[in-house]
Amino acid sequence: SEERGEASYDARIIGSGEFIDELRLRRELNAKFPLAMEIKDIVAKVCHHFGIDPEELRLKTRRAGIADARGVICYLAARQAGHNGVEVGRQVNLLRSGVSVAASRGEQMVNNDPALLAIMDK
Predict the structure, then answer these.
(1) Which residue has better confidence, 16 or 65?
(2) 20 to 30 A from 3, CA-CA: which of 30, 40, 65, 82?
(3) How far apart are CA 33 and CA 27, in angstroms?
(4) What are all long-range contacts of 108-113, with beta carbons under 8 Å and residues at least 24 apart?
(5) Are 42 and 119 in contact (CB under 8 A)?
(6) Is 93 left (phi over 0), alpha (psi -120 to 50) or beta?
(7) CA distance linking residue 7 with residue 83, whole number of Å
(8) What was the pLDDT predicted at 2?
């Protein structure tokens, strides 16, 4: 209730308390880290990690190393750094829907290899 310092809201309209907490956490994180790593920097670091040339991302290929790099870039840039899917897609030759699919693949790779997430800290 408002007496405890919590904002009042109608859960039927904006969702559960967990959703509200998630939004608050995101807002706090965005305030602390307003300048997320640029997409081109994420591309460069991920390509270096995978040992590929960033220009190879523009090729219409599904070769494993390139597809893996695309997935990790999409996950880190779109879901971790909060960049727009269309902008990310321009860097890796995918449409917005492809970025979403690739980001899901990339998330699995990052979860299995924490060194990939550390790319964002370098």
Answers:
(1) 65
(2) 30
(3) 10
(4) 109/68, 109/71, 109/72, 109/75, 110/72, 110/75, 110/76
(5) yes
(6) left
(7) 29
(8) 46
Structural domains of the chain in order of their starting residue, each with its CATH number: 2-32 (no CATH), 39-121 (1.10.1750.10)
CB-neighbour burial class of residue 109 (10 A; exposed 0-12, middle 13-18, buried 19+)? middle
Q: What is the pTM of this model?
A: 0.70
CA distance 87 to 94: 10
Two structure tokens written together for 42: 């994420």
pLDDT for residue 115: 86
Distances (CA, A) of 110 to 3, 21, 40, 73, 114: 43, 25, 19, 10, 6
Structure tokens at 96: 């917005």
* Contact predicate 103/89, CB 8 Å: no
